[in-house]
TrEMBL record, chain A:
Region ranges (Disordered): 76-108
HAMAP family: UPF0229
Protein name stated in the entry: UPF0229 protein DFH01_21255
Family under the similarity heading: Belongs to the UPF0229 family.
InterPro entries: UPF0229
Organism field: Falsiroseomonas bella
Length: 431, 515
């Protein structure tokens, strides 16, 4: 008898099969993942987790009998029945169901998948793209690597480029007409036959062989001038980095529900940027009639009162941009959320700042107008266009980088997000 | 319990190490080979974790298996069930191989390890080694190597022809896997030497019985040529053929060699599991009876404490619990319960029979050698024959069995037989049929091929008791079959008694597997 301890064996033996299964069910899982976005809080989305798909899509068919026909069962636990008794047929399922336990795959109604965070996000953000993705590649101090830089005549023996060296040697030997070993062998052979028959010819051959031998000695097989070394040089590695400006109106008219909608949008955007860029900075700027850069907690939590002057937020943003995030070095994304209020006198200034400073500096500007769920009004009423919507609407025609959407309900966030970032969305807007 | 350390005890407390396992194994071995007379393959005990147990579940318990998404699906389901607490994990898994592999879980207590070692390493092991079905259909020495080969071969195919192409063949083969076994041993194809010998013997025999008189007797008129042609075709294609995968492997016109080999692998694996499906009750009954016997003897010898023995009994009674039919927990007859009860019953009839037993089991009753009688039963039966042979009236009364007939043309179910004098034999026959795999599995055979016309493959399902196939699934399977065959396929459901065609399914080949 042997005892083997298998516990230390590498786990995940089923991983390959699991991935195949996942790939097979991918369409359904993708659907489930996207539907789940409406129900979950965004923190959970980032963590991955379980989704449910219908079992029918991954069925393995087998030839088996359907119910019906004449069947017999032997059952244990008779209490009162006598031979010849009749029993009403049980409703729904076989109360007397002695049929052998359901074979593999039957009787399950849905399938649960536990997805890792990576798998989840992959499916979640699949086929979205960042507009103007990584147009600016910048040098980040801490990252450097080496790259090939051709061949050199000097270097360490470890880096000898054999192929190149041999090629040089060959061309040199050809050019200087170094005698080939085959040629010498042939002459030697000829010499041997000549020595027996024709002494004069033998003499001539001998002289020729000597000449060739000398030549062979003078022209080496590999010469130091043939040798080449692979050359490497340190090169800074370009890393694309991005900063995301979150602008939000926090004046009294913004309710908690609206802020929640905005927050969801920001989180999605952040998630998305993080997958595309190695470094993503986030700057939170909130404004009432004056704007301030704050940390995340304050941004979403602490209430504020005051009027609404949107241009202050842009001014604050430009200040931060000038101080820390030069448009030459950073990919800049701006997401603005607001209920659409603005002081009427400020509209022109807002538009000027937006077109003059903000949009030229950034890759993408998304304006999200949040509303209350019950804001729709009676059917048939055109909802009032807000100040900001009108202002931005005029500018949109000339500027494809400006995108705007309205959101009223949690479940709209993800579709709107997908709509903004789906492949080709920018090109369409440009037309 | 006394605080004094008792030297006879196999172990103390719940913890165990490899020495404990070895001690348990050896102590069980003394009883198993000494008192019970079991003969065994060498054993290899492998300690595994819960996650590895889930892995093993997904691969039907096999330590190596080729890759396919369906195993991933199985894994996902078991994992969810386990995580949610709907399902505990098995304490062990045992593989019919030589050496016999027993996986034991690391979470088991020492008593549980003793139980599973007695159960798997002795009970199942003996059954695998001695039951005629396993000897006939499986090759315990070669199976692990074969699986290793299969895995490697299929991986190679994936490299050469792409995962998708291999997956399509495997999907189709899996759909037909239950039609990929031989149910009766095949005639071996004779070699030249034995053919010549037979020919010689036949000639000698003819010479010996030659009588010129026979020549004068008018013979039957020649059969029509078409009949002869058909007979020749059927003989060539070995029709009718129940093993559809075998038939495809040998005769499908457009498969490539590697695709045939994959069909072969799938049917070999299926054939390997075929005996297990036919011996659930016996296999578990044997193992349960053996572990019960060994643990009881260990306790009697003072090598288990009372507490440990009670812990064992607790697990044991859970395993052999049989809910009655009206209990919400009822899910069919528990093979452990029925098997164990029958083994106990056989032992009782052999040693302490009553009048009824003598009348029902004249050969067995009172023979005195319970172990011998059991060993014989384990070696020579499968579930249906075992029940038909050994289910006693006393056990039917004890389990209060009754026989229910469910005819979909009638309003109500009818009780056909109960555990009384009139019912015993009918009850026993019905239960035996319930375990007869020839009766439970639909009987589907390749009937003919239209070689001259459109090469359509024709299959027949012999319909018993009007039990037709599930139409949706039948169509899906038929589609897979047509894809492999490369031409159209027709499945006729034919009533077994009247010969009337009840339903037909068609499928045409899609491109994908064959070009």
């Amino acid at each position: 008898m042997q005892i083997v301890d298998r516990r230390l064996n590498p786990g995940g033996k089923s991983l390959a099969n699991r991935q195949r299964f996942l790939r097979r069910a991918k369409d359904m899982v993708r659907e489930a993942v996207r539907n789940s976005a409406g129900e979950r809080s965004l923190k959970d989305i980032e963590r991955g987790g379980e989704v449910t798909i219908p079992a029918s899509g991954v069925k393995e068919p087998h030839l088996r009998r359907a119910s019906g026909g004449f069947r017999e069962h032997v059952l244990p636990g008779n209490k009162e029945y006598l031979e010849g008794d009749t029993i009403p047929r049980p409703q729904g399922g076989s109360g007397g169901g002695g049929s052998e336990g359901s074979p593999d795959g039957e009787g399950e109604d849905a399938f649960r998948f536990a997805l890792t965070q990576e798998e989840f996000l992959e499916l979640f953000l699949e086929d979205l793209e960042l507009p103007e993705l990584a147009k600016k590649r910048v040098v980040e101090g801490d990252a450097s690597g080496v790259r090939r830089a051709g061949f050199a005549t000097q270097g360490s023996p470890a880096n000898v480029a054999l192929g190149r060296t041999m090629r040089n040697a060959l061309s040199r030997r050809l050019a200087l007409r170094r005698p080939k070993p085959d040629e010498l062998d042939e002459l030697e052979e000829a010499l041997r036959t000549a020595e027996e028959n024709d002494p004069a010819e033998a003499e001539a051959l001998r002289a020729r062989i000597d000449r060739l031998r000398n030549r062979t000695l003078r022209i080496p097989y590999i010469d130091p001038i043939d040798v080449r070394y692979r050359q490497f040089e340190p090169a800074p590695k370009p890393i694309a980095r991005a900063v995301m400006f979150c602008l939000m109106d926090v004046s009294g008219s913004m309710t908690e529900g609206m802020k929640d909608l905005a927050k969801r949008f920001y989180l999605l955007l952040h998630l998305f940027l993080r997958r595309r860029y190695k470094h993503v900075d986030v700057v939170f700027i909130r404004h009432t009639h004056e704007a301030k850069e704050v940390d995340e907690e304050t941004f979403f939590r602490s209430p504020e009162t005051g009027g609404t002057v949107v241009s202050t937020a842009f001014e604050e943003m430009i200040k931060v941009m000038d101080a820390r995030y030069s448009p030459a070095d950073w990919n800049i994304y701006v997401a603005q959320a607001s209920d659409g209020d603005n002081t009427s006198a400020d509209n022109d200034r807002t538009a000027a700042l937006l077109m003059g400073r903000v949009i030229p500096a950034c890759q993408y500007f998304a304006y999200l107008e949040v509303g209350r769920e019950d804001d729709g009004g009676p059917i048939g009423f055109m909802p009032r266009e807000t100040e900001l919507w009108r202002t931005y609407g005029r500018l949109r025609a000339e500027e494809p980088r400006l995108a705007m959407r309205k959101v009223r309900h949690r479940k709209d966030i993800y579709p709107v997000f997908r709509d903004l970032f789906r492949k080709g969305a920018m090109e369409e807007a440009a037309k | 319990m006394s605080a004094v350390r008792d030297d006879r005890l196999l172990f103390q407390g719940a913890d165990w190490d490899f020495d404990t396992l070895r001690r348990i194994h050896d102590a069980c071995g003394e009883i198993a080979t000494g008192e019970l007379g079991l003969s065994l393959y060498p054993t290899r005990i492998e300690v595994i974790s819960a996650e590895q147990m889930l892995d093993a579940y997904a691969a039907n318990g096999m330590p190596v298996l080729y890759r396919h998404w369906s195993f991933g699906k199985r894994f996902a389901r078991h994992e969810t069930m386990y995580r949610k607490g709907f399902q505990g994990l098995a304490y062990e898994i045992v593989i019919n191989s030589s050496p016999c592999l027993c996986y034991v879980m690391e979470e088991n207590t020492a008593t549980m390890q003793a139980l599973v070692i007695a159960h798997a390493a002795y009970g199942h092991n003996h059954f695998f080694r001695n039951n005629h079905l396993f000897l006939e259909w499986t090759d315990a020495h070669g199976i692990l190597d074969y699986l290793e080969f299969a895995r490697g071969y299929i991986m190679n195919c994936e490299d050469k022809y792409g995962e998708a192409a291999v997956e399509r063949v495997l999907d189709a083969a899996h759909a037909l896997s239950s039609q990929g076994v031989f149910r009766v041993p095949r005639r071996r194809i004779p070699d030249l030497a034995s053919e010549e010998r037979r020919e010689r013997e036949r000639r000698q025999h003819e010479e010996r019985i030659y009588d010129d008189l026979w020549r004068t007797i008018p013979g039957p008129r020649n059969a029509p040529a078409a009949k002869a042609e058909e007979a020749r075709r059927r003989a060539l294609l070995q029709l009718p053929q129940e093993n559809i995968l075998y038939f495809l492997e040998k005769t499908a016109p457009r498969l490539r060699p590697w695709q045939r080999e994959i069909l072969r692998i799938v049917r070999h694996v299926e054939q390997y599991f075929y005996p297990q499906r036919q011996t659930k009750v016996m296999n578990e009954g044997c193992a349960t009876w053996v572990h019960h016997r060994i643990m009881t003897r260990l306790h009697e010898q003072g090598r288990l404490t009372d507490g440990q023995y009670l812990e064992f009994l607790h697990s044991h009674t859970n395993v052999v619990f049989q809910p009655t039919f009206d209990d919400p927990r009822y899910g069919g007859i528990n093979p452990y319960a029925l098997g164990f009860a029958m083994m106990e019953d056989i032992a009782r009839i052999a040693t302490a029979p009553d009048e009824e037993d003598r009348a029902w089991f004249p050969g067995l009753a009172g023979c005195g050698d319970a172990e011998g009688a059991l060993r014989e039963a384990w070696a020579n039966h499968r579930d249906d024959s075992f029940i038909a042979q050994y289910l006693s009236p006393r056990l039917m009364r004890k389990l209060r069995m009754f026989h229910l007939a469910d005819d979909d043309r009638e309003e109500e179910l009818r009780v056909n037989a109960i555990h009384d004098e009139r019912g015993y034999r009918r009850l026993r026959r019905a239960l035996s049929r319930q375990y007869d795999i020839g009766h439970v599995d639909p009987d589907i055979q390749v009937e003919d091929v239209d070689l001259i016309g459109d090469r359509r493959l024709i299959l027949h399902h012999r319909v018993l008791e009007r039990q037709l196939l599930e139409p949706d699934e039948a169509r899906a399977v038929l589609q897979h079959l047509a894809d492999l065959w490369g031409y159209g396929v027709l499945l006729r459901e034919v009533d077994a008694t009247t010969g009337a065609v009840l339903r037909e399914h068609h499928a045409g080949a899609r491109p994908g597997i064959v070009e």
